[in-house]
Write a structure and sequence with these properties.
This protein is an all-alpha fold. It has one domain (2-197). It contains nine helices and no strands. The protein has helices at residues 2-17, 23-34, 43-52, 57-81, 83-93, 97-120, 125-134, 139-174, 176-197. The longest helix is centred in the last third of the chain and has 36 residues, at 139-174. It is elongated and about 45 Å long.
Length: 199
């Protein structure tokens, strides 16, 4: 399968690049961008970086969390002040138009829970940060839910890799094709879940 072969090459390249001195900067900026417009989650770099340097798992999880939360401010700003110019094209690109209205109603029920859920799960976080600004959710709510949700997710991932890194690396190498399919399904499933979970 061509997509799987492409992912295999990307994975091998990422593993090599994850060992470079510039990898932490890239990790921060990918996490930052994913919170507002970028489609790929930062886990794709956090995982190989932690496997390559398991003793740095706390640092890498912290960098990913910081980048993601900082990116949430950009998403919030886009929704608050630039929705028509920037936010709407992003929403249209991910086909989330109907979701925007549904999120507005869910925010009125429990904004913290909605934001935390998206921060902790594969649900596309950019849709949450942009709509949080659009519907004028209190910024402290966004920040608190983002810190707890993002830190919970990234520290659990990095911590698991710290404990079982070599075994996980062997599993990835052995079952890469199957895991690639699962990754794609999770990525697509996140968007589907976002569309239906808010109903």
């Amino acid at each position: 399968m061509a997509p799987i072969r492409g992912l295999r090459k990307l994975y091998d390249w990422t593993i090599r690049w994850a060992k470079s001195k510039r990898a932490p900067y890239a990790l921060f900026w990918i996490a930052f961008a994913e919170s507002s417009f970028f489609p790929i989650p930062p886990d794709v770099l956090l995982i190989p970086m932690t496997i390559a340097h398991r003793d740095r798992w706390l640092r890498y999880a912290a960098i990913t969390t910081l980048g993601s939360v900082c990116g949430a401010f950009l998403g919030y700003l886009i929704g608050w002040s630039f929705y028509e110019v920037i936010g709407r094209p992003i929403v249209n690109a991910y086909n989330l138009q109907a979701t925007v209205e549904l999120l507005g109603r869910r925010y009125s029920d429990n904004a913290f829970l909605v934001i935390f859920t998206a921060a902790f799960t594969p649900i596309p976080y950019k849709a949450i940060t942009i709509t949080a600004g659009l519907f004028r959710i209190a910024l402290p709510v966004l920040v608190a839910a983002s810190i707890i949700g993002r830190a919970g997710r990234f520290f659990i991932v990095a911590g698991a890799l710290r404990l079982f890194g070599k075994k996980i690396e062997n599993v990835i190498e052995k079952y890469f094709d199957i895991l690639s399919i699962i990754f794609i399904l999770l990525l697509v499933g996140g968007f589907i879940l976002l569309k239906h979970a808010v109903k």
